[in-house]
Design brief:
Helices cover 11% and strands 51% of the residues. The protein is built from 1 helix and 12 strands.
Length: 177
């Protein structure tokens, strides 16, 4: 009989340990997400360079502007184009992505909070602006703190077969949702 009690206590303790270690994700609210496009791509090695030169009075070329871009992946990638509409007062909930994203704000205003910012300062973006999400361990949340629907279009690079979005709990230094 005593062994049954010990077994019951161990099962309860194990269950509490598993529950206590679980990620308690913050829920999204007022969010509608649509996948506009998805494709799989082989290794990517994209580079772009643009240089502007002017000629000085003595005939020497002078570099006046440099623009460089590079995206490189090894292995297959799933590429997504995602449309998010966030109602006033809505949120994406805290989450991360396994790869980088380029986010365009196409309507309204969104406020982005990131876990890698020790002060968890709000970063506000309005229609016509964009921002990047590096992906990886950094988690973030978007809020619509305005009075009109906000809309973002994200281009995401994700390792093939990986989850595009990983729900996360709010960092201790940031808002809970």
């Amino acid at each position: 009989m005593k062994s049954k009690w010990i077994l019951a206590v161990l099962v309860i303790a194990l269950g509490a340990g598993i529950y206590g270690g679980a990620v308690l994700a913050t829920p999204a609210g007022g969010l509608t997400t649509s996948t506009l496009a998805k494709a799989t791509a082989d290794d990517l090695n994209l580079t772009g360079r643009a240089f502007t030169t002017t000629t000085t009075a003595d005939g020497r070329a002078h570099l006046t502007g440099v623009w460089l871009a590079s995206i490189r992946t090894l292995g297959l990638s799933d590429l997504y184009v995602i449309d998010n509409k966030i109602a006033p007062g809505g949120t994406t909930g805290w989450h991360s992505h396994p790869g980088p994203s380029i986010v365009f704000v196409v309507a309204g205003t969104v406020t982005n909070y990131t876990s890698d910012d020790p002060s968890c300062a709000p970063h506000v973006y309005t229609a016509g602006q964009s921002f990047t999400d590096p992906g990886g361990q950094d988690s973030h949340v978007l809020h619509n703190e305005g009075t009109a629907v906000a809309e973002t279009i994200a281009v995401q690079f994700v390792p093939t077969a990986a989850a595009r979005r990983i729900d996360a709990s709010a960092p201790a230094n940031c808002p809970s949702s």
